[in-house]
Amino acid sequence: MNPQKFYIGVDIGGTNTKIAMISQSGEITNIRRLLNKEIKLTTDNFLNLIFQEIQDIRKKAAYPFIGIGISSPGLQMKDGRGTLFSINMPLLNNVDLQGYFETRTGLPVVVRNDLVAHSLA
């Protein structure tokens, strides 16, 4: 029997951001929520808070993770690495989310527009 695979999902929104552990069967656990209005919203601070939550989930889990999926609002970059333009989260405009999180976590990262990601799910 193959062990189940686990991923980390990050749903960035204008009001809040959710980070969770997701099994390949779709079970969602270890849900974290960042309320954007309670955060000093600078690009560096915001990305570091998400990274800290990811690392905390990884430390507490008894399983290795396969990758990270990120949904973010707005028009995506042509190469799919981040958000080109977002009215709801302008601090993410032209930010290479894929590169940032791949470098910091060592995991493969996929970034999608939030509506596309929700449709695929």
What's the short version?
The protein is an alpha/beta fold and 121 residues long. It is built from 3 helices and 8 strands, in the order βββαββββαβα.
Tell me about this structure.
- This protein is an alpha/beta fold and 121 residues long.
- 28% of the residues lie in helices and 36% in strands.
- The protein is built from three helices and eight strands.
- The protein has helices spanning 43-60, 97-105, 114-120, and strands spanning 6-12, 16-23, 28-35, 65-72, 75-76, 82-85, 95-96, 109-113.
- The strands form two sheets. Strands 3-2-1-4-8 form a five-stranded mixed sheet. The chain has a three-stranded antiparallel sheet with strand order 5-6-7.
- α1 (43-60) packs across α2 (97-105).
- The mean pLDDT is 90.
Chart the SSEs and their pairings:
Blueprint (H helix, E strand, L loop, with lengths): L5 E7 L3 E8 L4 E8 L7 H18 L4 E8 L2 E2 L5 E4 L9 E2 H9 L3 E5 H7 L1
Parallel strand pairs: 1-4, 4-8
Antiparallel strand pairs: 1-2, 2-3, 5-6, 6-7
List key phrases describing it.
8 strands, three-stranded antiparallel β-sheet, alpha/beta, 121 residues, globular, 36% strand, five-stranded mixed β-sheet
Distance, first to last CA: 25 Å
Main sheet?
Answer: 5 strands, mixed
Order of helices and strands: EEEHEEEEHEH
Name the overall outline. Answer: globular
Q: Which stretches are poorly predicted, pLDDT < 50 over at least 5 residues?
A: none
The beta-strand count equals 8
Proportion of helical residues: 25-40%
Sequence of strands across the biggest β-sheet: 3-2-1-4-8
Per DSSP, the total helix count is 3
Supply the helix-strand structural class: alpha/beta
Strand content: 35-45%
